[in-house]
Amino acid sequence: MNLPHIIVLLWAGGSLRAFEIVEKENIFQRTPCPAFLMFDNAAYLADMSFELPCHCKPEEVSAVVWYYQERLGSSHTKVLTDFDGQMLTAASQVRVGSDLLVRFSIRMFSLVVFRAQPGDSGLYFCGTRKGDYFYAYDVDIQSSEGMVATFKDLGQEPFADDYRGSLHVFTTFWEWTPCDRCGVRGEQWRIGLCYLQSPDLSPRYRKTMPDVVSCGSRAVPRKLQAQARDHTPELLVQSCLVPCKNTTKIRGRLMAVLNYVSKVGRRPWLPQVPIQYHQQRLSHGLIISCPGARPEHAVAWDKDRQHLYRTQYLQGTNRSMRVFIDHGNHLHIRFTQLDDRGIYYCWRQGERVAGFRLGVASQGRYKVSLSDPEVRSALELTLIGYLLLTAVFVTIHLCRCCCYVFRCYPSFSR
User: Fold this and answer.
1) Which of 101, 244, 319, 338 has the fewest CB atoms within 10 Å around its CB?
2) In angstroms, what CA-CA distances link 4 with 13, 38, 106?
3) Strand, helix or coil at 152?
């Protein structure tokens, strides 16, 4: 191949790459913005993170601004941007209960909200800093407080659909999660959110099915929302069994190296996952989170060789539970006891990823801090008790003074 052919091929390759870049940059030209602003309905469970893409924008707009309104036409509007179109927030730094303004990020014109709360429900607009809107969403964040768990292995069935005249309330389930464990019996589940069908919905809200939106959508009139309020989200759980990935060769080589290095007849104990140690005071609560896990992930917990299945340890299964797993996949231990000591293993998406060695101290000095919620609760109870005693003391002395005045000066009572 001579030099002119090579030059032609290089020019053609560069043209193809330039064409590909131009296609990526002009993706918004192929998606025209609607002439009349509509709202896409989207529903999520509390504590989940979600992303809202800005599907269209004018070509001359280089940065977008996201706006939030609780209801259409509200006078209070939140501006979710740094006016550069980019605001990066690490999901690991976001805490539960934080304000919306510190739980969002804009990435490639899309709005990402971390650990959404029911108070984040409302209307989200993609537009410019001048207030021109291109695309909009109707977001419904449903609370997990009244969530009902249904266990298929126990023969339980999900809620039946509710018909009230022209109103049809039902549950829409997501896809099954992967099995939360491998090599042993595990569990998988699917989340069900509340949806309704009615001909009385607002026409400005785009629907995936005719006259069907989530129960908390702004397209639903307040009267219909009140009728669907009793239909809570559901969690459907069933058993599963999947094999683990083939790691026999890797473990075999590692054990051979350990046998060679260890000259004694006893091999050292090698944890299969990273282990973190934590010392907890006796009779105090503890919450353990699985690293990198989100509420929509398949997460499981084991204590040493005991499997903590959701059938027995899910929050709400028994009101007197001391150890339970909440709907955000956190392991709660209330009033820590000495027999809680051990290693708690965390499974994520069918793979064991971390372990927590828990130690329980029955005695020891504890540094008092006002940031500790237990210390604040103790101070509040002490202050309330002191105020009650003071009120009783003052009341008794006032009564004695009144009796003394009326007895010694009977003319006052006339």
Assistant:
1) 319
2) 14, 55, 47
3) helix
